[in-house]
Amino acid sequence: GQQVMQIPQYQHVQEGEDFTTYCNSSTTLSNIQWYKQRPGGHPVFLIQLVKSGEVKKQKRLTFQFGEAKKNSSLHITATQTTDVGTYFCANFNKFYFGSGTKLNVKP
Amino acid sequence: DTAVSQTPKYLVTQMGNDKSIKCEQNLGHDTMYWYKQDSKKFLKIMFSYNNKELIINETVPNRFSPKSPDKAHLNLHINSLELGDSAVYFCASSRTANEQFFGPGTRLTVL
């Protein structure tokens, strides 16, 4: 079945450094969603990308959808301690979630 | 005004028991879901209900049965609990093809 692979599994950064997580699919995705889960919390929707090559920004977060619609990335500029959590990509149509990238930010 | 609520928040039980987890959403969404998140944080879809019809069921043992009395509720019943069922179970809801709103989760521990 269709799988969504996510890397890296873990990322430790110093506050102020940038962070990127990547999501890759073996097949073309109709859309991709990104969620953030704080420690002990539940996944919270961040954004949905639908168009090939789409780029969306939310303050310090930049989301990209690949031209072939098989990969996506989330980039955080100048991380803050409030960015700590696990970031998941998800293919909504198939309800597949990536394995997640756990981000730790050291103050 | 909690959008998606689940009860109980914690559930500790013995192997072999039967238990239920309740979920309610007040967002007027037409689709509800159950996810299982294991200790490694993998999120796996278990069920989805749209207008009271089951639309997906991802290789979940038949010990698990979703029950939807109405559009706002999707309960999860588990028979003959096993050690491997220990996990956090999340309920979620959405309008078709849109963002999912997750409940706070139910941490199930089977002893």
Sum this structure up briefly.
The complex is a heterodimer of chains A (107) and B (111). Chain A has 107 residues and is mainly β.
Q: What would you report as the Rg of chain B, rounded to the nearest angstrom?
A: 13 Å
Largest sheet of chain A: 6 strands, mixed
What would you call the quaternary organization?
heterodimer
Strands of chain B, count: 11
The helical percent of chain B reads under 10%
H/E element sequence of chain B: EEEEEEEEEEE
- As a percent range, the share of helical residues of chain A equals under 10%
Largest sheet of chain B: 7 strands, mixed
Determine the mean pLDDT of chain B.
Answer: 92
Number of strands of chain A: 11
Low-confidence stretches of chain A: none
* Rg over alpha carbons of chain A: 13 Å
- Hey, roughly how much beta strand do the residues of chain A contain? over 45%
Q: How would you classify the helix and strand content of chain A by structural class?
A: mainly beta
Order of helices and strands of chain A: EEEEEEEEEEE
Q: What is the number of helical segments of chain A per DSSP (H or I, 4+ residues)?
A: 0
Question: β content of chain B, as a range?
Answer: over 45%
Tell me the number of helical segments of chain B per DSSP (H or I, 4 or more residues long).
0
**Low-pLDDT sequence parts of chain B:** none
